[in-house]
Amino acid sequence: QEQLVQSGAEVKKPGASVKVSCQASGYTFTTADINWVRQAPGQGLEWMGWMNPDNGDTGYAQKFQGRLTFTRDTSIGTAYMELSNLRSDDTAIYYCAIPNWGSGVGLEYWGQGTLVTVSS
Amino acid sequence: SYELTQPPSVSVSPGQTASITCSGETLGETYVSWYQQRPGQSPVLVIHQDNKRPSGIPERFSGSISGNTATLTISGTQAMDEADYYCQPWDARISYVFGPGTRVTVL
């Protein structure tokens, strides 16, 4: 059974960086794009970008260009999301997710989420 | 930036039908997915490719699309269906943006 397990909550100061991990199990890590989605307190879902774990290709939502970096370590089946120059409005739960196997459309498997709090 | 429109809230009595719409300029050109999110939980994919249910999703959830409007229908709504619902066109041109979400209340 596909499972995505994320790292624990983080508290960061404005201007700092945060790196969240997403460890995959139950499937071959390199066969599904990892997507990242965030949700600010009381707000909706916001798609951040994707990474192909096989070749490392990435795609970022326009608003995060220059601050967001996706990486992976295929030896341990883990993807990483690093967001730099943090601001208070980056306070959110960050999720990793992979698409539905059959169609490749829609995010079917989700991590449990990682709360990142940005506060001075 | 690309805009999607969903009603902020929908109320439904138990056993009745709830319909949630999602409108966007190019919605008819791509597949739409729908997610359910209960408080404090990760989202759950309930519909993909406009009208397909992933394994384990009850038959009372169905999806359709007409022109540039997609609709999620919950037939025979149950108390456990009370949640936020988000649409998402699967389209790289609009960065896989999510709709603003609809709160379904089962009265």
* Structural class based on helices, strands and sheet pairing of chain B: mainly beta
Would you identify the regions of chain A where 5 or more consecutive residues have pLDDT less than 50? none
Number of helical stretches of at least 4 residues of chain B: 0
Strand order of the largest sheet of chain B: 2-9-8-4-5
Overall pLDDT score of chain A: 96
Shape assignment of chain A: globular
Distance between the termini of chain B: 35 Å
* Radius of gyration computed on alpha carbons of chain B: 13 Å
Radius of gyration of chain A: 14 Å
Work out the strand percent of chain B: 35-45%
Can you summarize the main beta sheet of chain B?
5 strands, mixed
The sequence of SSEs of chain A as H and E is EEEEEEEEEEE
The general outline of chain B is: globular
Order of helices and strands of chain B: EEEEEEEEE
Beta-strand segment tally of chain A: 11
**Largest beta sheet of chain A, briefly?**
7 strands, mixed
Helix proportion of residues of chain B, in percent? under 10%
**What pair of chains forms the biggest interface?**
A-B, 22 and 26 residues
Give the topology, please.
The complex is a heterodimer of chains A (120) and B (107).
Chain A: E1 3-6, E2 10-12, E3 18-25, E4 34-39, E5 45-51, E6 58-60, E7 68-73, E8 78-83, E9 92-99, E10 107-110, E11 114-118
Parallel strand pairs in A: 2-11
Antiparallel strand pairs in A: 1-3, 3-8, 4-5, 4-9, 5-6, 7-8, 9-10, 9-11
Chain B: E1 4-5, E2 9-12, E3 18-24, E4 32-37, E5 44-47, E6 61-66, E7 69-74, E8 83-89, E9 102-106
Parallel strand pairs in B: 2-9
Antiparallel strand pairs in B: 1-3, 3-7, 4-5, 4-8, 6-7, 8-9
